[in-house]
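Me: I'm a chemist; would you kindly supply a protein sequence with its structure tokens?

Assistant:
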Amino acid sequence: MPREFNVAVAGATGAVGIEMIQTLERRNFPVKNLRLLASARSAGKKLTYKGTDITIEELKHDSFKGIDIALFSAGADISKEYVKSVVDAGAVMIDNSSAFRMNDDVPLVVPEVNPEDIKWNKGVIANPNCTTIIMLVAVTPLHRAKKLKRLIASTYQAASGAGAEGMEELLSQTRQALNNEVLTPKFFAHQIAFSLIPHIDVFLEGDYTKEELKMVYESRKMLHCPELKISCTSVRVPIMRAHSESLNMEFVEDITPAEVREILKNAPGVKLVDDIANKRYPMPIEATGQGDVLVGRIRQDVSRDDRKGIDMFICGDQILKGAALNAVQIAELL
């Protein structure tokens, strides 16, 4: 009999937590017992796993006795509060928050990018930021072949990246706008319906946002390239689900669009959608619900006099591959 594992999901009632439960089921992860944990107000409710109703328990420090793997999607503060309890119980925490991503003693992992880093975990493995995951799934095979030197990213991030409140604000503002009602932003800093906001998370050094700098530092860590030049602009757009990214890349070696397509056509986690003759290119509506990152609009950078520059457009479901699926894939590697 293959080994089975006792799994806990902390933050089970959130969008990512629910997706984690569904992903465990969909991928037939060898779960022996599944423990669903959430706040006190959610305790007693039920969620279904493989046709069986499981009662949600209140997250407590003694919740991890007998647990092998704890999938966390409850926010950085909760992860920091409970990490010792998880590790002391002998479980491995796979954490979806930003709490431990840049800690030197915590591996930051995307299985298609740096699976080898899992080996040196000390009881905690961090899930990267969703936009970083989506980008590196598409970029890493090219980096391995031609060595990435510089990358400029512009991200177009769905309202669901801001959680349930972000999605509700987009829906309510869209209704208000269509009914010619006065729109009053509550969650976002500005109107999001029929607009976009070039501001995600707080502003930090150099007037970059925290979201933008996550892309920089997390990419360098996972690619083991501290010298890699990266710049990012993150934009919230009126899309419900799935993030998009426009990437401009410079490589050490010459690279052509044909080579990019050849490299990516069999790359894990990548789906080429690059048929402009038939108007086929990545779009968030098509990426929604997919585990793969869609890649297209591949072309040579015409601003350069050499063949070292490539532009492309990518889309990925940030709740699925950008969070829940990546966490479960880490668990599978474990």
Remarks:
- The domain at 132-318 is CATH 3.30.360.10 (Dihydrodipicolinate Reductase; domain 2).
